[in-house]
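User: I'm putting together notes for a lab meeting next week and I want to include a structural view of one of the chains we've been expressing. I don't have a solved structure, so I'd like a prediction I can at least talk through. The sequence is below, exactly as it appears in our construct file.
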Amino acid sequence: MSVSRSLGITLFRPTSQSLLQAVQQAEAAGVPMAWVPSEPVGPDALTTLAVAAANTQQINLGTGITVTYTRHPLTLANQVLTVAELAPQRFRLGIGVSHPFVVESMYGVPFQKPINYLREYVNILRNLLWTGEVHHHGDNFNVEAQLPLILRPPKHQSCWQLYRKTCLNWLARFQMARWSPGDCCPI
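Assistant: Thanks for the context. Below is the predicted structure for the 187-residue chain, given as structure tokens.
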């Protein structure tokens, strides 16, 4: 992969309309990737990306990141399938647990065992996106569901590969100096 294909821009805007305009301007300028963060207060990233997908042709679109504690995996799977249908081969989903302050103080949701929670969440999401169904009974979720398959394996299964990456732009300089790839926990 060339460096130019791996670069993108993260867009913070106060309204959905200004986010859409920024994505369109980025596409016109040749930016290959636009990331829209899920913020506790502000435009919904996935809704905005669905509109952007319908109003752009080439730019790759992604969430950076969608907070798992505030969105059920079944809901997220439905939203992902919608955006992916509108932007075939152009959508990237970034998910994460966020931070205790955001989850507990702003949303009022307990922030407990985040790595275990994320593993369970990813397992449910992966099953829904790869097979269209899930039968999961765990510590955090009990989910029995079948989705109509928009993207059917194995033809599109490579689109739903799980990649473990870290967005270092959210770390303070002193944290980046201490961070190493070996610090990550496997999902």
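A couple of points you could mention at the meeting. The radius of gyration is 17 Å. The helical segments are 3-6, 16-28, 45-54, 73-86, 100-106, 114-131, 173-178.

User: Perfect, that's what I needed.
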